[in-house]
């Protein structure tokens, strides 16, 4: 008689790979599995086997994903296989057939069901956690660990992940907390990935020989290195060719369809419009008509005035010609249309940010990277090997392509050897971001006693990694102490040989190491002084550039004397101001703060006609003639690099160094001993650093949990009776609030500061607690629409101040400060205002929002309002929240709910 696995395999249209078969076999035996395999390798088949097994047993399977778009996609895939009656969908704002035997959901939904002890868990036998490496996500990763730790032991857990370098460590932890877990790691890509570099319109293989199955590190193509050296010596411009020419080159090499990863929304839109301005057409007449039909169907419910705001006509024209942008700033419905058209093969090129690499099934034949640097929200940083692997993993469509292509565009600042290093490092580590929070604390203590909750937290992957790190640090300290003894013995031998007459050995060794310690501290202090000086100088120059006006004449530091220039276009971006100037020498270009070691000086103004920012000899001649005819008070000298003033710490250390006895030893003998003495100091400092790290790491999570428990007890969300910690009625309400500012919202509900607000006002204060301004327009504070709203906002901010004071007193992470940049816009939208009006209101309040941003924040506000509706003790507030949700969900916000 055939096993269920054999029957499952017979129903497939393709044979299973070895890793797929092995994983399914373990699931059939009732064992959990962790499957780590490259993007596009078919690991989701393993999850689908778990779904099929649960159905055959008459039990329930939950299929969890990290993002709603992936949940929607998986829902439709499973409906196509099992029918609408067998599959449900739960994503927070969508609830379809929730009692079905198969339910697709976001991971947060499952976490909430576990804490609320939902009856849907009664028949649960399998949980598939797709993209389980999201556990490392800074903002949401803790949810994955909460689910893994709290799921009933009888549930079979199937984790599907991209390839990670510490899969064995993660698997050991899963075995420890969930029971025996099979670790299945597959490195082989079913569609081989070829690595290339594009130089102009030519495409060079990155490696001399591509041998994906070889364990030897491949050599960089010498022809590519020679071409790069030639191009750099000729001074090729930064971007060798435009996007239309790059697309044409890919088409010539049969590398379409392609995804161009561009690490900014503006860059994606710019690339799209660059192609629109060209003659690029990638579709046939029939394909263009099909695209237009699908697009018009998808936006049928959008108001015409909103389509104007969305620049719909130009977007539709680009789609019909076969190219599109895809980023988080777009309307979600527009993104879904792009995904659908690309999956059907109607669109040939997509310009996307890295959000496209996060699990959506949208592969291409080729992935193009224009840069290997991205902005992470704080600074421009190099791509990691893991990010490179995730992005290029989109290349190669299984069952369609025989090979995929990863193309990096060459520029003078990209070294082919560095690209080869990224391309040949295929794995990256999975590190836990788990930390106890307020909601987690009350939920744990509502279901178990304090000791059990602490024990559960200490079973987290974060603690598992921390404990492993402590062991590794302790071993390192042992090795360092052995090395220290050897170096100290070496120093004593050198003293006996070099200067036995100075002092007895012990005092001499102590003095020379003390002296080298001061020298090390001085070197560190000087570096820090220089860093601070450069930072202050950069800030000073940036401030100057940001306030330069049209016609301002500045004197810039020069080699011999200051150079005069006039501003013909002020800075456009406040955060990175780059004014356009024409100098007295005829040079025209943008100034960047990083190019100056000393700030320029404003020396006057020049009366300029309009349009001087346009390139051309006429404008340059006008400026040069003006500089010849007029006199400006040019400084006699401006240093190209400003002197950095010595700090008090540097002065103190220099004085201590000069007064130290060793400073007066004969120079040759002192410097001969310095190397070993400095090594002694270096090892001692490293041992101290590692010991401090161990002290800080020990039981960190348990300590945080203890401090949170203490604070919540003082605030009345928990109480201690006869040594047992229990949850109060207020704590039960906090347990229902799953929000980054959960305790602040709970305090607002508890204190009644939102009582009496109408639906639009309540939506606005919900936005106050939810919104994070990531693109500040520098707008001024606008008048709050109503007095009750102003009072509620002031009361909320006052409660936040009180809360932060408590958090500081207990040594806890601080709750994010409320931001008012969206309040007026949400208030107006909830009251029925059009999209354009609301975006303008956000801009006036200091928040630059695209329509897609606005929709995303609206949905997050809706999510909080639904929690208020469920958990508020006030019937009036619940009613207002319910009405606010209905009012917000209209037009573009409700388009694809």
TrEMBL record:
Classification via PROSITE patterns: HELICASE_ATP_BIND_1, HELICASE_CTER
Keywords per UniProt: ATP-binding, Coiled coil, Helicase, Hydrolase, Nucleotide-binding
Domain Helicase C-terminal: 242-446
Molecular function via GO: ATP binding; helicase activity; hydrolase activity; nucleic acid binding
GO BP annotations listed: nuclear-transcribed mRNA catabolic process, 3'-5' exonucleolytic nonsense-mediated decay
GO cellular component: Ski complex
Residue ranges occupied by any Helicase ATP-binding domain in the UniProt entry: 24-182
Keyword Transcription regulation in annotation: no
Coiled coil: 470-497
InterPro entries hit by this protein: DEAD/DEAH_box_helicase_dom, Helicase_ATP-bd, Helicase_C-like, P-loop_NTPase, RNA-DNA_Helicase, SH3_HelY, Ski2/MTR4_C
Name of protein: DEAD/DEAH box helicase
